[in-house]
Amino acid sequence: MDKDITQLNNYTSPDASIDVIPIVDVANNETKKITRNNLLEITGAPLGTTDTQSVQNKTLDNTNTIAVKDNLFTIQDGVDPTKQAQFQASSITAGQTRIYTLPDTSDTIVSIAAAQTLTNKTLTSPIITNPTLTVNTISEFSAANGVTIDGLNVKDGKLNTNDSVVTTNITDQNITNAKLAIGAGEPGGAWTSWIPTLTNFTLGNGTIVARYKQVGKTVYYRLLFTLGSTSAVGTTGTFSAPVTPETTGINFPDNLCGTANFKDASGSTYPGYVRMETSGELRPLVFNAAATYAVVTGANATVPFTWTTSDMLYIEGAYEAA
Length: 322
Prior knowledge:
Blueprint: E1 20-25, E2 30-35, H1 36-40, E3 74-76, E4 84-86, E5 147-149, E6 152-155, E7 158-159, E8 192-193, E9 198-202, E10 207-215, E11 218-226, E12 232-240, E13 255-263, E14 269-276, E15 281-288, E16 295-298, E17 312-320
Antiparallel strand pairs: 1-2, 3-4, 5-6, 6-7, 8-10, 9-12, 10-11, 11-17, 12-15, 13-14, 13-17, 14-15, 15-16
């Protein structure tokens, strides 16, 4: 029977599968029935704005703004829903919104603790604690600075730190001649020429070839004086040494520092030795065998023979540099 709608009882337990709602068909001037879901054009229960409901098969378009608490937002694997992940925002300063920009690539997130292999990364001024590096090349970042490893600077393929190589780091008997520096004056280099000062010798048109090499504090020398027609030999002459000698603790003038050969152009050769004088000069002396025991004497114009063109005086030896 007809009642005013305000007089109808409230229906608190509707059954959506069988209950119907009256609706007026204005075109045909009659009242018809329709189910709730047909009226709303849905197949399930309506979605309430404040109701606690499990929502499925919904698509939110890109006009929606969503704010979700981190502990209520869970991502599940599409195959195994027990594999889950959540984001945690608790470390963000209160009142701040942090924005993370995604790179233009499909990739894997890099974490702090996970063991991962990184490629194509550029690290600017990083602090890396106790790393194990497997690399083929380490290049300097700033031009001309080289690369410093634990205080040792390497620049252009060479050690660039003073005292970076010490004897304890060199294997005994492991340095060959081929590894020695070959510059002038270096252990592996050519001997150096020197022009000696002559005392009581006259070079004239003769020639002198004098060369030496210094290795540490040891000086090796050799000298050949070939007389010309205007050359002359005075009394006990000397040649200046190529490097100033050490004199401390040496019993001058009896410091023997080499051998001497006096060669007559006729073919005879007379041996002797070289003595280092207190003045730092090399004095060649010849053996005199006239007595029972050989003694030495200084050369002069007629000792050990009368000097003439093409006669030669050769000395060689070694001594300690100052």
